[in-house]
Amino acid sequence: MLVNIESLYKYYNGEPLLKDINFTVEDHETVGLIGKNGCGKSTLLKIITGMEGFDKTPEGYGSVSVSSKAAVGFLQQNSGLNSNSTIDEEMHDAFRTLLEVKKQMEELEIKMSSMQGDQLDFVSQEYSRLSAYFEARDGYIIDVKIKQVLNGMGFGDTPTDRIVSSLSGGEKTRLALAKLLLEQPNLLILDEPTNHLDFQTLMWLEDYLKGYKGSILIVSHDRYFLNKVCTRICEIENGKLTSYNGDYTAYLVQKKMNSERQLKEYEAQQKEIEKLEDYIVRNKTRASTAKMAKSRQHMLDRIERIEKPSMYTKPPRIKLEYDIEPTKDILQVTGCPVEVGSGASKKLLVKNLELHIRRGEHVAIIGPNGIGKTTILKLIQGLIPHEGGNILWGGNVKISYFDQEHSGLDMRDTVIGSVDRKFPRMSELEIRKALGSVLITGENVFKPVSVISGGERAKLYFALMALNRGNVLILDEPTNHIDLNTKEVLEEALAEFKGTIILVSHDRYLINKVADRIIEVQPEGVRSYDGNFDAYAAKVAEEKKASEQAQQQEKQLRQRQEYLENKQKQYRSKEQRAKDAQRRARIKELEQQIEADEAEISQLEQEIQQPEIASDFALMNEKCTRLENLRTGLDEKMEEWASLEQ
pLDDT value at position 22? Predict the structure, then answer.
């Protein structure tokens, strides 16, 4: 057990934020900590890490213990790095202990070069100990690990000599997480780690954390992420912590079962309380029954009240329907560039946008931050101009558009006025009923749009979309700012919608539940994947594996070719050496023959000058013929010798 908390309380201004918290983190488990904003999740993490104190029960109970063997790594929402360091220096700082060991080994190597005898043996033993420690902790592949994590966290194309202070806030958070992963503490505590991460980085991080050797405690609102990595979910609700075994989906099932059981117990208790209260009211003034009424009052006072499950607070109602069936081909986009800015500041985001969306499809558009997904939604609706290409909508199409910036709302208008302006034929009662379905009620309907929360504005948008009855829904980040209850209602409404949906969202849980096709936007164009986000992730993993296998095969082929070329070079070298040896032998042989021929020529030239030879015609003819043949042969040998010497 790495963490054990018993009877923990935390008060702020006399009010309890956390009440009677009992919580553990075991070895080799991944715990997701969830709850509404402000419920105390980050506070609990700070208490565990010793950054904040805690309170005890009135009787003095309450403890927080962290195992002495637990090396704790904590990524906060605003983690700091050394601003003056480079990326490379920050990453190597994660291995400072190992690098110090390496330095000691290098110093010992220098010492051993000038030692002998017992002194050398002693130092060699120390070197062997350090070397074993260094190797056991993968000291020889530090740079490989750094490269792997930097690539996975989206820094593959970033120069490692870049100064940390030049990075954006999101980049610093990603770099801090990368450093923490390299440090590999056996208790990794992460507070909202998925902020600032695109889909590819998130998918890499999920795979990395699933193979993490230590324990992990995560605070996150990313339900898909929690589903992928967690083995247990702990929820803080109304100051209390409840633990659920399994991932986020398993938590939902268990939470519903617990809430239904608690609701039955609550309703049964309320009936019992009502009976007791009714009996007390009717009998406490009558002398004959006052004693019994007092006894019932004592019974009532001793009842430990069961809280009404918060899961059964009234959820909003969102029903999306349409009246007119559009044509089969909803949208056709061909050869359309996606650009932002104008003039000299114009920037091309997507070279060639190609889209074909059919009736009834639920399409999610995904891609890296800044690739232009929101721009695409505006482009296809004609809200911004485009140069080149064609955008063609089918017949009978009626669009309902959810704009993440809520620019379709007049901030000076009231909530009820926003609906009346778009649907002037509706009565005030009808408008209030529509707003009531998304839990905007009472005097809140007369508030200016500018003063209501982002979540309430989103609900107002959903009410307007329901009233518009569009057969094509275009949604840009619809789950931003809304609470979990509203998210779940919206997801159900979208999943059940029979019309066409074009969705941009970072909420993978929403995409997974609603989409039946994923369109990934890239700088060159788009790629389409059938199925939900799970299917997309599996296909991407399959493509990555195939690419890696192809690269491996290409590498093996290249190595084979290099091997054959080396063998051929070695063969040619051997053959050449043999030829060189033969050439040198021939040169030597020619030199000997030339020397002999020159000596014989000189001898013959002297002989033919003697009178006795000159007077003998036959002998003279023989000597001259021999001399001529030798001179001819000598010329040939000299030419061959000269060519071999080149």
Answer: 94
Domain extent for 285 = 265-312
Quick one: pLDDT at residue 313?
63
d(CA 422, CA 437): 18
The token duo for 396 is 């009978």
pLDDT score, position 574: 67
- Show which of 507, 531, 555 is a domain's final residue: 531
Phi-psi region of 280 (alpha: psi -120 to 50; beta: other; left: phi over 0): alpha
Domain count, the chain: 3
pTM for this model (two decimals): 0.76
With a CB cutoff of 8 Å and minimum separation 6, the contacts of 78 are: 173
Q: What is the pLDDT of residue 382?
A: 92
Closest C-alpha among 502, 506, 529 to residue 518: 529
**In terms of domains, do 355 and 478 share one?**
yes
The per-residue pLDDT for 204 is 92
336/281 same-domain check: no
pLDDT for position 77: 55
Domain-located, residue 622: yes
- E-only strand ranges, 70-214: 72-75, 187-191
Contact 505, 482 (CB under 8 A): no
375 and 345 part of one domain: yes
Burial class (CB in 10 A: 0-12, 13-18, 19+), 172: buried
Rounded to whole angstroms, how far apart are CA atoms 7 and 190? 23
pLDDT of residue 324: 94
Q: Give the CA-trace dihedral at 361, 367, 369, 372, to 10 degrees.
A: -60
Using 70 as the pLDDT threshold, list the residues of the chain that sit under it: 76-80, 311-313, 569-574, 646
Beta bridge partners of 163: 86
Of 312, 342, 368, the residue that ends a domain is: 312
Tokens at 459, concatenated: 């609900």
The SS3 of residue 383 is coil
Enumerate residues 6+ apart whose C-beta is below 8 A from 264.
Answer: none
Q: CB under 8 Å to 260, separation ≥6 — which residues? A: none
Say if residue 350 is in the same domain as residue 489: yes
Q: Is residue 274 located within the same domain as residue 353?
A: no
Sequence-distant (≥ 6) Cβ neighbours of residue 103 within 8 angstroms: none
First to last CA, the chain: 83
Residue 611 lies in a domain: yes
d(CA 65, CA 63): 6
> Kindly report the CA angle at 34 between 33 and 36, in degrees rounded to 5?
145
